[in-house]
Q: What sequence folds into this?
């Protein structure tokens, strides 16, 4: 079954705000962007050049079933698309626990599903963000882990921080 991640009702209208947040209420609804309620932001997007950026919710919006089952695939919360860039975003609100490995797995699985359904060669810049409101500053990812992720995902770089800079 083919899944279209790009032409979907889950895609918000593009915005060019210098700053906005990506939120997830954790109540079974989809992630969304917001410009007013910073307390709800899990990730902050900085867009000083006011580039047109479109957010698409994936988890709790685009339904992707595992082959030959009725179980849903584990996916990240959403993606940002602008110019020749695609950024996948997983949002967490955990103080402790295995939030980073879980985030990486969700991001990797989403990349696998995206690659299966779309040619991602048009994107020059591909990044995967694990964003945690309880750990907003950069969390160090070992160089080997970063290289392995890059190889396994056909060119996506992994980052663990709650600030996403659009260039």
A:
């Amino acid at each position: 079954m083919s899944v279209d991640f790009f032409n979907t009702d889950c895609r918000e209208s593009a915005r060019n705000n210098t700053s906005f947040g990506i939120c997830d209420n954790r109540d079974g609804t989809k992630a969304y962007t917001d410009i007013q309620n910073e307390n709800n932001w899990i990730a902050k997007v900085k867009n000083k050049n006011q580039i047109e950026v479109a957010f698409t919710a994936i988890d709790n919006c685009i339904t992707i079933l595992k082959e030959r089952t009725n179980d849903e695939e584990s996916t990240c919360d959403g993606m940002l698309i602008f110019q020749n860039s695609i950024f996948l975003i997983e949002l967490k609100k955990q103080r402790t626990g295995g939030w980073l490995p879980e985030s990486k797995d969700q991001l990797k699985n989403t990349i696998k599903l995206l690659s299966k359904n779309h040619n991602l060669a048009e994107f020059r810049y591909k990044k995967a963000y694990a964003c945690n409101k309880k750990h907003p500053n950069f969390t160090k990812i070992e160089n080997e882990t970063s290289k392995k992720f890059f190889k396994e995902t056909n060119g996506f770089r992994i980052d663990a921080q709650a600030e996403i800079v659009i260039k």
Notes: DSSP finds two helices and nine strands in the chain. The longest helix spans residues 99-117. The beta strands are 19-23, 32-34, 43-46, 54-57, 78-82, 85-92, 125-132, 157-159, 163-165. Helices lie at 99-117, 143-152.
